[in-house]
Amino acid sequence: MLMTLLAALLLTLGTDTPRSGELAGYLIVPHDRVDERYDAGFSMYVAAWPLLKHYPGQQFQSGLFGTWMFAQFPDPKPKDHYSDIEGGLGWWRDTRFATETPKFIMGGVALNFSEWANGPGAGKGRDWSNPTGLYGVAQLSPWVIWPPDGLNLKQGTRGELFGYGYLPLPLTNPKVKTLGKEVPTGNQCWTLFLNTANFKGPVAFFTPHFWAKASALDPGKAGMFLDTRPSDANRAIQMETQHVPASTAADKNGTLYARVAPTQFPETTRPLIHRVTAYGRAALWDQVDAWFKGGKPASGRIDPAASAMSRFKSEGYATWKIDTEAAKPDKPQNLDWPKVGSAVALDPWTYGYRWSSTLPTAQGLVTLPEAYRLGKTPNGDPIWVAIDPKDIPAETGLSEVRFDRAPRGKPEPYVTPDDPKSSWKNPGPVAGPFRVRLGDGSVVTYWWYRFADQPALLNADLTRAEREAMQKRVEKLHRTWTKQREYLPPPTVGALAHLDPAVLVKPPKGLEVGYVPIVTRQEAP
Fold this sequence. Notes:
single chain, mainly beta, 33 strands
């Protein structure tokens, strides 16, 4: 009955005009749970690759494999309390300087998406008069600049592993008041650590104020965010795709066909996810805390003895479906994913896919089926079945559809406040401006700020004395935690991805310790 109604509707709409659609859904990655006492962050390695052969424009939005880190609570967990760290590798509708190569964002979410922070100077919107998350992340590394459009990987990355994780550092002291209210702010500075081929170590951190200020508006939520709470040791691992361009049309009999923009994955046996690890406080926090209290310097090496890795099995499933403007069916129109690929544990700590042997492979990437026909499952539900493109009837017009690279106009630049009274100018930078062209074609302008005087910390509800205490701690880190050290436990398979070499910088002479680069503008050349 459903297919008959679909056919009738499509015949009334016409059978020879392709209509816009999209491929969207999740790839679900089951993995074993670990003990909840590993509640001080996580790390993982995920493959970075060009999901689409050609970047189709800003309607395209998809992450690659990633996770969501929530605060840990005893049952029952609080309701109406969404707040986490998500983000990861991908492409977003607000990406202004996108290419086929993914970028990385931090993706911290304040209470119920009231704000989000994607990196230093990057977050929800670009309204500096109402900076919802734009000051939520502080720069820590003196060697990496963070473009507001996202952290760039080297152009041409094709399946190498990008290592990242978040662990808390005690860069601040706990506060008994938040924004003058009798609610506390914790001292967990959740810090992004990277392990790539050309950079290793901490880059930036969420200020505790980013999480805690929601409790100043609602004191009943005091102490319920990541500035104070431990992290949940177990996290979902998925790939979330919101829009891959597609087109659909019906033949003269009302049968629906679809074409999808050429979509790629690393070939069979290439690792997609590796070493998903949860950490206890002894992995890093304890030795850094002791160091800051007068003990011996901490190496920064995250101790794998205080960790637990999740095991993979050859299991997993997809909710990918093709939606079409031509009809809004009552039931989801899923892809017949098992005919395309199947999950495989390459070893207990590494996850990938085994693809159909009929799929074309080139330069380490397999291209998924591009053509589909809407059929039925044995129980009568609609399902998209992959077919040879030559089997799409000519009258649908789908053979004429192109998914070429979108023409690139001149994107609006990212800018920061220029008011001499703003936190960007008062006390302001100590060196600059410096300009560099990134691999995505954009040009960024950055300046060197004293760590404690960077805009994010001037907007983090900290007194001058509290910022100066942070300054002393960060100077210890800059002297000791060099970029040549190992921090995250290294991978045991695959090759590491590179950051865009243009985001790697060298401090000016005399500013090697206690100073950080802050991007103030990103624009087309």
